[in-house]
Structures are given as structure tokens and as C-alpha cells.
Amino acid sequence: TLPFDLAGKRVVVTSGGTREEIDPVRFLGNHSSGKQGHAIAALASARGAEVTLVTSSSLPVPPAVTKIDIESARELREQTLEAAAVADIVIKAAAVADFRPADVSDSKLKKGSDGEPAEIRLTRNPDILADLVAARAIGEVPSSCVLVGFAAETGDTSGTVLEHGRAKLARKGCDFLVVNEVGRDTTFGKDDNGGWILDSEGGEILVERASKDLLAARILDAVVARTTT
Ligand code: C5P
């Protein structure tokens, strides 16, 4: 049986990728399916939390979870900050585009007369996790709210990935960072995942590659342990 250890807690989960409009028919996106975030949302709900899932994913909404649909990083930011204003825990499993086209074309981009591609200039998207940390510092997000980020790493999962994870955790200023290996054929869209759960007090939990449900359980266990000690 599941622990009912998140009863009365408000949990916000973001999941899936973002879509950044190029023109009326095209977007910049990524391969994130939303499965990991959905697994976290479903389990948090089953463990008693009131869960808001902010997502671009069209996966079925887990029981008793409130879903908010978004497409772009800026929509994700707006909805996440609003939901976080009353949250106990925010878990940012979404794969957010770091950049978006600087100008969205009103009409479909055409090839140049010489057949050359049109140039798409990019501009930076806001870092939502950094914005959550800043909002918490000024009281717009409760000071007791636990912030969990993800770091998707491709390639090896050796010491360097952990080192990068540590550095990223410090840089982002969140409480936990889940470091997982991703790639077209490994994690995205698949049912298994694994990695490390790093916490800002120096702790690290290795989660062997297994199901996204198991990683979800380990993340929630770690967050509950932090909030009850
Ligand atoms: O810096 P990096 O993209 O690796 O950080 C990953 C974490 O930061 C994830 O939790 C992701 O949801 C979050 N992030 C964000 N806004 C961005 C980029 C990443 O919230 N623009």
C-alpha cells in the first residue's frame, strides 16, 4: 500500500516539452513526452496531494489531478508561477526550450528565391526555475515551498555528469536536482528512467535505471524526508 504522506500538500508538477512558434504552421520543440512528470503527478495524487499538472503533453490526466495546458515556455512560466504562489512543492520535470524565435512570422516562411533557407533568429526564454527561486526569495512563493529541478544530460553518466549536476544545483538555487540521462532512444517517450537525486545539503541518492514510477517514488520520498525533518 502507498503511504498517504502528502495529504493536504499542494504539489505543482510541470511536464513535457515546450513548443515555440516559428510561423503559423511550424514550431521549435523537443522530444519530451511528459511521462516522467505524469508519473510524479499520478503518484503524488495517490499519496494524498492536491496536484496541479502544467503541461503540453496529451497523455491521459491522472486521477484527481488538475491539468493546465500550455505550449510555449512563456505560457508555462505564467501558469507555473501562479500555481506556485500557494504550493508546498514544485517539481519541474518539463523540458523547457532555452530559446525561441525572436520574431514569429504572420505567414508561413518561404524558401528564398535562390532556394536558400530563411534565417530564424533566436532569443532567450526565461529560466522558470530561476524565476521560482527568485519569487520564493521575495515571498511570492511560500518560503517553505520545496523546489525540485531536473537536469537532462546526454552521453555518459559518469562523475562529470554528477559534477555538472552539483554545479547546476548551486547555480539554480533550488532544493533538489534530479539528474537523468536522456536521449532520443533512451529516456524520452520511454517508460524507464534513472539517475541521481541531489539535494542542496549535499545528499545524493542514486536511483538505478528502472521505471519512471520508481524514480517518481524516490523523488517524493526525498522531498517528504526534507519537509518532515
Ligand atoms: O539549465 P537546464 O535547462 O539544464 O535546467 C533544467 C531545469 O531547469 C529543469 O527543471 C527545467 O524545467 C528548468 N528550466 C526552466 N526554464 C528554462 C530552462 C530550464 O525552468 N528556460
TrEMBL record:
<dbReference type="GO" id="GO:0004632">
    <property type="term" value="F:phosphopantothenate--cysteine ligase activity"/>
</dbReference>
<keyword id="KW-0511">Multifunctional enzyme</keyword>
<feature type="region of interest" description="Phosphopantothenate--cysteine ligase">
    <location>
        <begin position="11"/>
        <end position="229"/>
    </location>
</feature>
<dbReference type="GO" id="GO:0004633">
    <property type="term" value="F:phosphopantothenoylcysteine decarboxylase activity"/>
</dbReference>
<comment type="pathway">
    <text>Cofactor biosynthesis; coenzyme A biosynthesis; CoA from (R)-pantothenate: step 2/5.</text>
</comment>
<keyword id="KW-0288">FMN</keyword>
<feature type="binding site">
    <location>
        <position position="168"/>
    </location>
    <ligand>
        <name>CTP</name>
    </ligand>
</feature>
<keyword id="KW-0436">Ligase</keyword>
<comment type="function">
    <text>Catalyzes two sequential steps in the biosynthesis of coenzyme A. In the first step cysteine is conjugated to 4'-phosphopantothenate to form 4-phosphopantothenoylcysteine. In the second step the latter compound is decarboxylated to form 4'-phosphopantotheine.</text>
</comment>
<protein>
    <recommendedName>
        <fullName>Coenzyme A biosynthesis bifunctional protein CoaBC</fullName>
        <ecNumber>4.1.1.36</ecNumber>
        <ecNumber>6.3.2.5</ecNumber>
    </recommendedName>
</protein>
<keyword id="KW-0456">Lyase</keyword>
<comment type="similarity">
    <text>In the C-terminal section; belongs to the PPC synthetase family.</text>
</comment>
<keyword id="KW-0460">Magnesium</keyword>
<feature type="binding site">
    <location>
        <position position="150"/>
    </location>
    <ligand>
        <name>CTP</name>
    </ligand>
</feature>
<keyword id="KW-0210">Decarboxylase</keyword>
<feature type="binding site">
    <location>
        <begin position="126"/>
        <end position="129"/>
    </location>
    <ligand>
        <name>CTP</name>
    </ligand>
</feature>
<feature type="binding site">
    <location>
        <position position="172"/>
    </location>
    <ligand>
        <name>CTP</name>
    </ligand>
</feature>
<comment type="pathway">
    <text>Cofactor biosynthesis; coenzyme A biosynthesis; CoA from (R)-pantothenate: step 3/5.</text>
</comment>
<keyword id="KW-0285">Flavoprotein</keyword>
<feature type="binding site">
    <location>
        <position position="108"/>
    </location>
    <ligand>
        <name>CTP</name>
    </ligand>
</feature>
<comment type="function">
    <text>Catalyzes two steps in the biosynthesis of coenzyme A. In the first step cysteine is conjugated to 4'-phosphopantothenate to form 4-phosphopantothenoylcysteine, in the latter compound is decarboxylated to form 4'-phosphopantotheine.</text>
</comment>
<feature type="domain" description="DNA/pantothenate metabolism flavoprotein C-terminal">
    <location>
        <begin position="6"/>
        <end position="224"/>
    </location>
</feature>
<keyword id="KW-0479">Metal-binding</keyword>
<comment type="similarity">
    <text>In the N-terminal section; belongs to the HFCD (homo-oligomeric flavin containing Cys decarboxylase) superfamily.</text>
</comment>
<feature type="binding site">
    <location>
        <position position="98"/>
    </location>
    <ligand>
        <name>CTP</name>
    </ligand>
</feature>
